[in-house]
Amino acid sequence: MYFKKESASQINFLASAKFIAFTTQVGDAGVAADANGRKIVPAGTILPANDATAKGILMHDTDVTEGPQPGSLIVEGYVIPERLPVAPAALAIPELKEIKFR
């Protein structure tokens, strides 16, 4: 039987094990396909956008190749901003009221 072995890696951006996350719909608009043709929204992405509309931070990598998918959105907790895929924008930080950046 043929199989292809792939390693997955995800940076831990949480500064504490205590956080609150809710289910959200992760959209596929504007997500580019990777080398394998998969559209992956990386963990640590500020959703719905890194601006004044920010609601939270995506907990896990989410595959949106087949369209929008459910994901976990952190709305409260401690985060290490240097480990996020994109630094939080100045407009996003005040909107993430219960997320503390260490």
Task: Summarize the structure in words.
The protein has 102 residues and is mostly beta strands. Helices cover 0% and strands 35% of the residues. The chain has no helices and 7 strands. The chain has strands at residues 14-26, 40-41, 46-47, 56-58, 62-63, 69-79, 99-101. Strands 1, 3, 4, 6 and 7 form a 5-stranded mixed beta sheet that branches. It is globular and about 50 Å long. It starts with 13 loop residues before the first strand and ends with a strand. 22% of the residues are buried. The model has no long low-confidence stretch (mean pLDDT 94).
* Helix amount: under 10%
- Unreliable stretches: none
Whole-number radius of gyration? 14 Å
Pattern of helices and strands = EEEEEEE
Strand content: 35-45%
How far from one another are the termini? 47 Å
Q: Count of helices?
A: 0
For the report, how would you describe the main beta sheet? 5 strands, mixed
Number of strands: 7
Mean pLDDT across all amino acids: 94
Shape: globular
Q: Which structural category do the helix and sheet elements fall into? A: mainly beta
List the topology elements.
Elements: E1 14-26, E2 40-41, E3 46-47, E4 56-58, E5 62-63, E6 69-79, E7 99-101
Parallel strand pairs: 6-7
Antiparallel strand pairs: 1-6, 2-5, 3-4, 4-6
What keywords describe this structure?
single chain; 102 residues; mainly beta; five-stranded mixed β-sheet; two-stranded antiparallel ribbon; 7 strands; globular
